[in-house]
Amino acid sequence: MGWFVYRLTDSALLLGLIGFLSQIPSVFIGPFAGVWADKFPRLSILKITQSIALLTALALSILVLTNTIQVWHLVVLSLLSGVTEAIDAPARQSLVIELIEKRSLLTNAIALNSAMFNGARLIGPSLAGIIIALSNEGYCFLLNGLSYIAVIISLFMIKVPFRKLVVSTDSMFTKIKQGWKYSFSHLPIRYLIANISVITMFGMSYAVLMPIFAKDILHGDSKTMGFLMSMAGVGALIGAMYLASRKSIKGLSGKMVFAAVGFSLALIAFAYSYSLILSLGLMLVVGLGMMFQMATSNTILQSVVDDNMRGRVMSLHSMAFMSVAPFGSLLVGFLSKNIGAPITLSICAVICLLWAVYGISLQGNLSKSINQMLQKHEQEHTTEAVSAFDVADITPELNK
Question: What is the pTM of this model?
Fold first, then answer.
C-alpha cells in the first residue's frame, strides 16, 4: 500500500495521511473494543472482523485492477480497515490465553505467534516486489484478499473452552474507567504501554518512510523496498525464535530495553546509509529490535494481567500500537517533506534512544513489580486448583 500510494501521488505527506487514517479509529473505538472482548465471545468477534477485512481487501484489488482507483477510495478503504482492526486486535490478543491450556507455555505461544507474523513479513514483501515488477500492485492486493479465506475457515475450525461471561450492571464507560484505572495503577502495565507508544510513534516511522529510502536514497524500485522489509522480517524472525525457546519471562524486561538501544542506533545508521548492502544489514538489526519490543511487551502483559481485565488491558496495548502510529505517520510525513527523510528518521531514532536509557534506569522497580504480580497469579491459580480438587474429591460421596 505504501509503495502504491507513493508511486501514485509522489507525496510523502499523503503517504503519512493514508497511514494515519488506517490507524486513527483505534483512538475512538479501542476502549469500547476492549470491553466487548471481555463481554462477548472473542472467537465470534474475529469471525466478523476477518470477514469485513476480506471484503475490504478484495474491493481494493478490484479498483486497482480495473484502473478505477482514486485517492478518495484509498482514504475510505484505509479508514474502514482501521475500524476493523481496532475491533479485531483486543479480541485476537485476548484469545491467545484461551488457546493455551498451561499458563507456563504462554511465553512460547506468543513468541511462536510473532514468528508466524514475522515469517509473513519475511516472505510477503519479497513476493510483492517481484509481483509488482512483473505486473502491478493490484495482484498483491488480490492475493491479500484471497488469503483471508484460509483465515476465516481456520477460525470456524477452532474450538475454545467455554468461557463464563461475567454479567455486570456497570455501564460501558464505567467498565472502560475500571480498565484504565487498573492498568495505570500497576507499574509494569503502565511502563509497557508507554514503551509501545514511544516505539510505535517514533521507531516504526521507518516503515512509513521506506518507499522514500528505497526509491530516492538508494535509487531502487519496488524490489529494493521488498528486500529491505524482508531483512527486517529476517531479524524479527530471529528474535521470535529466541523468545520461543525461553521457558519464562524472567529477565525479559531488561533484555527488552537493551534491544531498544540497539534498535535505535541501527536506525540512526540506516538514516545516513547510501549503500544497499549496509542498509540491508542494518534493517536486520532494526527488525530484530522492533519485534523484541512488541513480542516482549505482549508476553509480559499477558502474563501479569488479571483475566477479567484482559480485554481492556489488551485494548490499551492495541491503542498504544495503533492509535499513536497515525500521529507518527503524519509527523514523519510532514517533517520529511520539509527537512528530508534522513534527518527525520534520525530525530525519531534519537528520541527512541533517550527513552531506552530511561527504561534502563527503571529496571530495578520494574522487575520487582513484575515478580510481585506473577506471584499473585501463581497463588490465585494454586487456590483455584485446590478448590477444584476438593470438589472432585467429594463428588463421589455426593453421588453416593
Answer: 0.69
The pLDDT score that the predictor gives to residue 150 is: 93
CA dist 104 to 109, 220, 233, 247, 322, Å? 10, 46, 27, 8, 28
Catalogue the long-range contacts made by 2-5 (C-beta closer than 8 Å, 24 or more residues apart).
Answer: 2/207, 2/208, 2/210, 2/211, 3/132, 3/137, 3/211, 3/214, 3/222, 3/225, 4/64, 4/137, 5/74
Q: Work out the burial of residue 391: count CB atoms within 10 Å of its CB; fewer than 13 is exposed, 13-18 middle, 19 or more buried.
A: exposed
Burial (Cβ within 10 Å: 0-12, 13-18, ≥19) of residue 163: middle
Note the CATH number of domain 2-158+171-376.
1.20.1250.20
337-380 per-position pLDDT tens digit: 888 888 988 999 999 999 999 988 888 888 888 887 777 766 66
The CA distance from 76 to 18, in Å, is 10
38 CB-near residues (< 8 Å, 6+ apart): 94, 166, 175, 308, 309, 310, 311, 312
Euclidean distance between CA atoms 392 and 399, whole angstroms = 11
DSSP sequence for 255-315: HHHHHHHHHHHHHHHHHT---HHHHHHHHHHHHHHHHHHHHHHHHHHHHHS-GGGHHHHHH
When pLDDT is cut at 50, 70 and 90, the band that residue 252 belongs to is confident
pLDDT score recorded for residue 152: 94
Cα 58 to Cα 95, 124, 145, 282, distances in angstroms = 26, 17, 5, 35
CA dihedral 119, 96, 303, 322 (to 10 degrees): 70
| Element (DSSP H or E) covering residue 361 | helix 341-361
